[in-house]
Specification:
Radius of gyration: 23 Å
Helix content: 25-40%
Shape: globular
Number of helices: 20
Largest sheet: 9 strands, mixed
Length: about 550
């Protein structure tokens, strides 16, 4: 029944008559003209570095071939021991289509938001900015890879929505498998040391891929699009070639928008009391969406209670061995925050920290009082108010509200649903209060509450889609996966795009995963929703784990 509802749709193109992506090797693709190779010569730190740039299809049965293409950048200083930096350019779960990642200026290639032809002058600080992050990798001899993929932003193709979960994750895993299928041709990439890097939705995809390596959940979908290393058995099950897997070595995830199935509840668990204070002070208004403060608070109260129950059900352990609960979750958030404050005092000093706070858009500072002797007083509730005054809080529910407000607020609903539905609510409140008459989703159309619907075949399929967007189940509740052993995760202390509660639970999920050898997790000093801002520190960590 799952395939009838969420089948990844018929083949539109078969490259050169091949049946599996393993047969679309790079050498054959270059010979046939399906792939291209050019040599570019970017300037990095004022020095020319020659880079061979390959572009190729990575699927045998692509259903969006204009996007399902891969870029492989091999610098002249690469060797068979070169790690691979796998760039995941995904914002808000909108994966860039391939055309958006490749441009041309004066006949010179520009891709992935990284202009390799822009000179980075000697003496420039390579530790800041997206361009410098990739430049640092090339300079160190890394092979850099990017790719296009299907996305929730693609809209309908022949009346079918091909970008719903797990499409983007499937394409990402397929691109990784393509690299392994071509390891002998490339010879200058150690595909046992693939490091994924992404921000926001890209951070979430990085986390999912790192957690769920070689999960059988994805095999059928990978087979349907002709990904390398997947075969179908006579009994209809699927097998992955142990030499061509989709596991990775390390994850570098910035502000990951993850655990979408509980993200609305986590947001209100964090910001419920903050909303009440903002409304009372007249500092929060959603009248543009036709939403009264009383109704927003009603929704917030319901979602907050839902997250408390969820956290209590996880059975995650704290560092001291006690169970993480809704009662001590805030204390765990504060522990992580104060650890970052302590670190920042040592790194930049209290005067610079005071200036950073004062230079914020709204700098009312009752949340962190820094004393000259480097002691301080930290107030988490005031910190949340500071965050919300600098960037308006998302509406409630924050991530699933397509059928509730008009105009629609920021949400991820069109990541889910059958291929015949443009979207689906994906948590209890948005399902029960959906008001768009589309005959397929929400209590208004199905006459089923969320709990009732989740017992149906359609509900079970939706739950599977939700699962395949989050690393959580794969980290601590399943053992038939190859989880990346090394993780570097950052979330800004001024980021309101998801919630401190969710990120702290994510930290505990990672900490409780026995397959992880090294976890470097932290809230980052006063960064908003952004990534790759600490490349120097990140690469120092990466150097240390690559040496293990």
């Amino acid at each position: 029944m799952f395939r009838k509802i969420f089948v990844l749709v018929s083949v539109l193109v078969i490259f050169s008559g091949t049946a599996f992506a393993a047969e679309i090797d790079l050498a054959k693709a270059l010979a046939s003209g399906e792939a291209t190779k050019v040599t570019i010569a970017p300037l990095i730190d004022g020095e020319v570095l020659k880079v061979d740039w390959y572009v190729a299809p990575y699927l045998a049965k692509a259903n969006r071939p204009e996007d399902q293409r891969i870029n492989i950048y091999v610098p002249e200083n690469a060797s068979e021991k070169s790690p691979v930096l796998f760039v995941i350019n995904n914002g808000g779960w909108f994966m860039d289509d391939y055309a958006a990642t490749v441009g041309d200026r004066d006949g010179i290639a520009i891709r992935d938001g990284v202009n390799y032809q822009t000179e980075i002058d000697a003496g420039d600080d390579l530790s800041k900015g997206r361009e410098q992050f990739s430049a640092m990798a090339l300079k160190r001899g890394f092979v850099v890879v990017s790719y296009g993929a299907r996305s929730r932003g693609n809209g309908a193709t022949d009346g079918k929505f091909l970008g719903h979960s797990p499409a983007t994750a499937v394409d990402t895993k397929a691109a990784i498998r393509y690299l392994r299928a071509n390891r002998e041709f490339l010879k200058v990439a150690d595909t046992d040391r693939i490091i994924a890097n992404g921000t926001s939705g890209g951070g979430a995809m990085t986390s999912l891929i790192a957690a769920s390596g070689n999960s059988p959940d994805f095999f059928e979908f990978l087979y349907d699009v002709g990904a390398a290393g997947i075969s179908q058995n006579p009994d209809g099950t699927f097998t992955s070639d142990p030499e061509i897997g989709d596991e990775i070595f390390a994850a570098m995830a910035y502000c990951p928008i993850t655990d979408l199935g509980h993200a609305d509840a986590a947001y209100e668990f964090t910001y419920n009391s903050t909303r009440a204070k903002l409304f009372a002070a007249g500092n929060l208004d959603y009248s543009e969406a036709g939403a009264a403060s009383q109704d927003i608070m009603r929704k917030s109260d319901l979602l907050k209670a839902e997250y408390a129950d969820y956290v209590n059900s996880l059975n995650l352990k704290r560092k001291d061995g006690s169970q993480l609960t809704s009662e001590n979750l805030e204390a765990e958030i504060v522990n992580l925050m104060t650890a970052e404050i302590d670190k920042t005092i040592q790194e930049i000093g209290i005067e610079k920290m005071r200036a950073d706070i004062a230079n914020s858009k709204w700098h009312g500072n009752s949340w962190l009082i820094l004393n000259d002797d480097e002691t301080y007083a930290y107030d988490f509730d005031a910190h949340k108010y500071f965050v919300a005054m600098n960037t308006k809080l998302k509406i409630a529910p924050a991530f699933s509200n397509s059928g509730i407000y008009e105009p629609q607020q920021q949400n991820e609903d069109n990541l889910f649903g059958s291929i015949y539905d443009s979207y689906s609510p994906f948590e209890f409140l948005s399902w029960n209060e959906d008001s768009v008459k589309n005959n397929s989703v929400g209590k208004d159309d199905t006459n089923l509450t969320w709990d009732e619907y989740m017992q149906t075949e359609g509900g079970k399929n939706l739950a599977f889609q939700i699962k395949m967007t989050s690393p959580f189940d794969y980290l601590t509740r399943e053992n038939n996966v190859t989880t990346a052993p090394y993780w570097y995760v950052r979330w800004g202390m001024k980021d309101r795009d998801s919630s401190f509660a969710l990120e702290t639970v994510f930290y505990h999920e990672l900490m409780n995963c026995e397959r992880i050898r090294d976890l470097n997790f932290g809230f980052a000093w006063l960064f908003p929703h952004s990534g790759n801002y600490d490349a120097k520190e990140a690469f120092e960590w990466l150097d240390s784990v690559l040496g293990k």
